[in-house]
Design brief:
Blueprint: E1 2-7, H1 14-31, E2 35-45, E3 48-57, E4 62-69, H2 72-89, H3 91-100, E5 107-115, E6 135-146, H4 148-158, E7 162-167, E8 173-178, E9 184-187
């Protein structure tokens, strides 16, 4: 497994890197089975340290966790505990997922755009001059080919509010999202 342990404008010493590697390896061996790489980023926000961890599993699923604490080791331990809780919740499905799927999740390329909001144009009149939106950023993204259950699990593990995916059974683009009432919504065109 590959580890990338970095700090944003802070020095991450060898002792912390060793601690991160041993704790992550121990925690992931209980649940994930075959993680491919982990990225752990430390930063400082006012008086607190922030730890963000992203673990990519060999099947293409991704687990993320983020924690804030006043000490850097405590921030990592809290982040590791959050990821442990997420993976424990999906342990059975992750283990079954590894047995069913022998090849990684197939990914399709797509474009992702960030559009300017109407709030930025508060000084101008309410009616825009044209109906064409202003594109602020354009990026490439990947759309995984998953079952609906795997998509919900991936959305939960990543902590994302929405996930666009290609439904394996119908070979169509679908969306799962977290509703305001806490339930999961599924858009199947």
């Amino acid at each position: 497994m590959r580890y990338q342990i970095t700090g944003k404008q802070i020095d991450v010493g060898a002792a912390l890197q060793t601690h991160v590697q041993t704790e992550l390896t121990e925690m992931l061996s209980k649940y994930a089975g075959r993680p491919t790489d982990a990225t752990v980023t430390f930063s400082k926000s006012a008086h607190e340290y922030v730890c963000e961890a992203i673990v990519h599993l060999s099947t293409g699923l991704t687990a993320t966790a983020k924690a804030h604490q006043t000490e850097i080791y405590a921030a990592f331990d809290a982040c590791c505990e959050k990821m442990d809780k997420q993976l424990r919740r999906y342990k059975r499905r992750l283990k079954d997922h590894h047995k069913e799927r022998t090849s990684p999740v197939e990914l399709f390329g797509a474009s992702s755009y960030i559009l300017a909001s109407a709030a930025e144009d508060a000084g101008e009149e309410a009616e825009p001059e044209t109906l064409q939106p202003i594109i602020v950023a354009e990026m490439q993204t990947s759309i995984p080919s998953l079952s609906v259950g795997e998509a919900v699990m991936q959305m939960e593990l990543a902590g994302a509010p929405v996930l666009v995916f290609r439904n394996e059974k119908k070979d169509e683009v679908n969306v799962v999202y977290r509703r305001d009432d806490g339930n999961i919504g599924w858009i199947d065109p």
